Amino acid sequence: MASADLLQLFQAVVMPMGARSGPTLSAAPIPGAESHRLAKDGAGCPCVLIRQQPRIVRPPPIKLENLLVSFDVPCSVRDHVGRLEEDTFTIIRCFDNSLLPHFLRIVSPMIATLGVKPTAAAVRAAVVALVELFQALSVPGHKKIQGVWAELLLIRRARDPVEMVTSWHRDSYERFDFASGPDRIEVKSNSYRRREHNFSLEQVMAVDGARIVIASVLVDRCGGGVSLGCLLNETRELLSYDPTLVSRLDLILYSALGSGWAEALDESFDLELAMESISFYEASDIPRPQNPSPQSVFDVRFRADLSFTTALGDSHMGERGKLFRAAIPLRSLKSAI
Is residue 163 left, alpha or beta, with left meaning phi > 0 and alpha meaning psi from -120 to 50? Predict the structure, then answer.
């Protein structure tokens, strides 16, 4: 179910009346996942109710600043005509109503992935991923907005966006932005309309049979351009048939943006410039320091101008491996966005 539909459904749920004992919520079945409920508590906060069989040992709740997950809770739930339903649910509650649209957007693919009768292990795994995402929203991001925008554009206009999302890095400490088997792609962006990028020596020196390609993108902030949020929505729509991929996309992107996610999603860049500028380069062709550093010297970083470096054509990219074939761009704006 689309997040816009979940928002409509939530807005139609009435505020719950008080009860003598136990949690009472007003709720509606989630279309496509009718065993689960979208609910509203007494404070008007959104809750997702995942129906489960009660367990002998109830896991402890998980509480964050804006999120509370309570497992195996006996609930009294009323629908829109006042009928009472009593059952056991795992309750995912968001305390910040300003996060409502984003909360529903994030949980929508999670609900679809769980299905009608999820196992306790599946619910636990989904909750862990959701908690990880919300934790990321409370700490500073680890990537520049223009860099995230460039990486997402690379996914959005790729010939095989599924392979690109599957290969997208999750850990901020990973050396390359995309990795699949021996294939690596590192994305570099520049906002000064020059192909000058910062590198670490390790990013251009292949070891252990790795094959490395550098993707260079020129970006320019532009009020009338395409925002990161718009690019995210279009990419999510492209992958909407696979909720697991959408959840992965959300987790990686929000983790990269961190606590500045709301402002970041509004940042816009010149789409035409970026798409026309995308070029790929063999890592071994990147200008670098001529003399290898001694073994006792490490973390060598340098800035290289790629203006005089020959870019790889689509045919050369296709010959290099699955990830590189996936990254070959759809050149027309109409087909890409």
Answer: alpha
Task: Report whether 71 contacts 61 (CB < 8 A).
Answer: yes
Rounded to an integer, the average pLDDT of 155-176 is: 91
pLDDT value at residue 335: 44
Instruction: Tell the residue number behind the tokens 């909750």, with chain if given.
Output: 127
Give yes or no for a contact between 172 and 256, defined as CB atoms under 8 angstroms apart.
Answer: yes
Contact of 6 with 30, CB cutoff 8 Å: yes
pLDDT digits (tens, 9 = 90+) for 293-314: 666 777 889 999 999 999 999 9
Distance, CA of 38 to CA of 46 (rounded, Å): 7
Contact 232, 118 (CB under 8 A): no
CA pair distance 292, 236, nearest whole angstrom:
43
**Cβ 275 vs Cβ 329: under 8 Å:** yes
pLDDT tens per residue across span 74-99: 888 888 777 888 888 999 999 988 88
CA distances from 4 to 34, 71, 104, 178, 274 (A): 17, 27, 8, 31, 29
DSSP code for 294: P
Cα distance between residue 113 and residue 110, in whole Å: 5
Across the chain, mean pLDDT equals 89
Q: Is 212 helix (H, G, I), strand (E, B) or coil?
A: strand
Amino acid at the residue 205: M
How far is Cα 279 from Cα 281, in angstroms, rounded to an integer?
7
pLDDT (tens digit, 9 = 90+) per residue, 66-76? 999 999 888 88
Using the Cα atoms of residue 189, residue 194, residue 198 and residue 199 in order, give the sign of their dihedral: positive
Nearest alpha carbon to residue 110 among 88, 133, 87: 133
Answer yes or no: pTM beyond 0.70: yes
Domain spans of the chain?
Answer: 20-136, 145-332
Q: Residue 111 and residue 32: Cα distance in Å, rounded?
A: 9
More confident: 21 or 36: 36
